[in-house]
Amino acid sequence: MELLIVIGVIVLLVVIVGVYLWATYNSLVTLNVRVDEAWSDITVQLKRRADLIPNLIESVKGYAAHEKAVFENVTRARAETLSASGPAEASAAENHMHQALRSIFAVAEAYPQLQASQNYLQLQGELVDTEDKIQASRRFYNGGVRELNTKIKVFPNTLFVRGLGFGEREFFEVDDAAAIAEPPRVQF
Fold first, then answer.
1. Using CA atoms, how far apart are residues 139 and 16, in angstroms rounded to an integer?
2. Which one, 49, 88, 133, 174, has the greatest CB density within 10 A?
3. 23-51 burial by CB neighbour count: b if 16+ within 10 A, else e?
4. Is the CB of residue 23 less than 8 Å from the CB of residue 83?
5. Tens digits of residue pLDDT in 86-137
6. What is the torsion angle, in degrees rounded to the nearest 10, for the CA atoms of residue 47, residue 48, residue 53 and residue 54?
7. pLDDT for 50-95, tens place per residue?
8. Cβ atoms 161, 28 nearer than 8 A
9. Which 8-state DSSP code applies to residue 154?
10. Residue 152, CA distances (Å) to 14, 38, 146, 147, 169 in order
11. Alpha helices (runs of H) in the chain, residue ranges in sequence order
């Protein structure tokens, strides 16, 4: 009888551990997929902004053709954003993009005719909307990364999750937070 109780306790412990491992693995897979989805959302918004940049440049170029360095900086920042493959590279690209956009908007401020252009105003509105979407996507991504990293680091998960192929993910942080505290704006 004692042998049956010991075997029953062992079987019960194995079942409990198995259910725990199964639930933990499935929740880690879910969090991992959620983080991948959030990163995809960020890249979609970065691509959308990058697609708006050439139109914005062309709008401003017609009025300020002599500002060649500004246009080159924006084009370079756009290329850097499109080629970023991870959060660290995207973070650096974000800093450069914001600096470049501020400079192009500063040039635009000197041309009242440009500020009155419907095309320019529409592009500016779409760009501000896209910046808001990038910021929201970044918050969603970082929230997912926080949940995943926490789940990986808590005890007893930390003992076995790395062996299952899960690792901590990188936050999408910007080097110069003050540079992107708010979307670039033009004062009329």
1. 36
2. 49
3. ebbeebeebbebbeebbebbeebbeebbe
4. no
5. 888 888 888 888 888 888 788 777 777 777 777 778 888 888 888 889 889 9
6. 90
7. 888 888 888 777 776 667 777 788 888 888 888 888 888 888 888 8
8. yes
9. S
10. 22, 18, 10, 9, 10
11. 2-61, 68-83, 87-109, 112-115, 118-153
Residues with Cβ < 8 Å from 53, sequence gap 6 or more?
74, 75, 78
Which structure tokens are listed for 51? 């697609």
Residue 133 makes CB contacts below 8 A (sequence gap 6+) with 45, 48
What is d(CA 38, CA 145) in angstroms, rounded to the nearest whole number?
A: 9
Token pair, residue 150, equals 């926490």
Whether 161 contacts 81, CB under 8 Å: no
Give the amino acid at 75: T
Tokens of 113: 């005719």
Q: Is the peptide bond before 156 cis (omega within 30 degrees of 0)?
A: yes
